[in-house]
Amino acid sequence: MMRRTWTTLAALAVVLAVDAAAQSPAAFSRLGFGAQGVAMGNAVSADSSASPWYNPALAPFATRQSLTASIGNLSLDRDLQFVQLATPLQRAGIAVGLTHAEVSGIDGRNNDGLHTQDYKTSEFAGFLAFGLRFSKRVTAGIGLQLFRSDLIDGLGAVNTVGIDLGVTALVRDDLRLALVLDDLLARFSWDSSSLFSSGGKTTTDNFPRRIRLGASHLQLDGRLQIVAEYEARFSSAEIARSAVELLGDSPVQTRRTEELTVRSDLFRVGGKYTLTDYLSLSAGLDRTAGAAGGGFRPATGFTLEQSIGALLTHVGYTWASEPYGMGNAHYISLRLYLEQ
After folding, report:
1. Percent of the chain as helix, strand, coil, to the nearest 5
2. Alpha-carbon torsion (92, 93, 94, 99), positive or negative
3. Taking 50 as the threshold, does the pLDDT of residue 259 lie above it?
């Protein structure tokens, strides 16, 4: 029993450490999607060339069918994989994608502190985004996300569905604004009775509700793009209070729980400069929740455009600094345009 307890705690501690908001489920899904978005600080909800994962209202901006694959190597034995297929429709667009996060090399030990075996966790986030162009300046979209988390053997995998809503508006020829609502209705319900028998219980973890406002501004005849984003994140927290009260003439210890909603304000900024028709440079700053004391995540990268026969490809690389001195992350992306 104790071995399982320590294993569970170790797994949860490492997995949730990827985000400063340790109580938030599926924290990996808020680290970004692919090399280009991370390089621009993930402030791309109003960037018409960004993945609809950031904003389903970006789906109609796809000009041709494309397939994108990315990998991310992070510190603490964490790995990310991304894949996305996007295609344009008449006055609309659709994209489907999947993110996989894995933590390996988790050290399992028994009551004597001796190593037993290595554990790993596996989490998935799939999405389907559909966007419609209402006019030359306004687009809107809806996204469905399916989350799955499988932490350790003996604790059953959990699933949930979330809804994203987004809109973009071109207020000037060089300025686009965006509004996104993320992870509506999403929550994990954990049942630990399979691990702890009668000592187990069902715990519900609500995803943070997020409201994001984004902007994208073009300068230097479109060669320089500046993006910025503000996010209000509302996370639920349970506070337990213990007290000693008198029941008649006898003192009795009582325990009460209180549900609180915690708000975090996050800011992101980034930019991209097109040096040539084949090379662009990007840089950004992503501020994670609770960023005071080291939560800033600077990043930089580049994208190369290359034709292989009749096939147009984009290859990108991004370096990002992890928050709180955890190390560095490296991302590589490949996008294939399947139509000429």
Report:
1. 10, 60, 25
2. negative
3. yes
The helix/strand/coil state of 53 is: coil
CATH of the domain at 125: 2.40.160.60
Could you read off the pLDDT of 143-160 as tens digits, one per residue? 999 999 887 776 778 889
| Distance in angstroms (rounded) separating the CA atoms of residues 229 and 166 | 14
Q: Which among 197, 151, 124 is positioned nearest to 10, based on CA atoms? A: 151
- For the entire predicted model, the pTM comes to 0.83
Burial of 78 (0-12, 13-18, 19+ CB in 10 A): buried
Distance CA 266, CA 42 (A): 11
What residues form DSSP beta bridges with 306?
A: 313
In total, how many domains does the chain have? 1
**DSSP string over 219-282:** ETTTTEEEEEEEEEEEEEEEEEEEEEEEETTEEEEEEEEEEEEEEEEEEEEEEEEE-SSSEEEE
Taking only the tens place, the pLDDT of each residue in 297-339 is 899 999 999 888 788 999 999 999 987 777 899 999 999 998 7
Please, which residues have CB within 8 angstroms of residue 207's CB and are 6 or more apart in sequence? 24, 25, 26, 147, 160, 162, 183, 186, 187, 188
- Collapsing DSSP to helix, strand or coil, 145 comes out as strand
**340: amino acid identity, one letter:** Q
Choose among 306, 229, 314, 231: nearest CA to 266.
Answer: 231
65 lies in which domain range?
2-337
Q: Whose CA is closest to 166, among 116, 130, 219?
A: 130
Contact call for residues 46 and 215 (beta carbons, < 8 A): yes
Q: Which pLDDT belongs to residue 194? A: 65
**Short-list 34, 12, 33, CA closest to 24:** 12
Q: Are 147 and 188 in contact (CB under 8 A)?
A: yes
Q: What is the H or E stretch that residue 3 is in?
A: helix 2-16
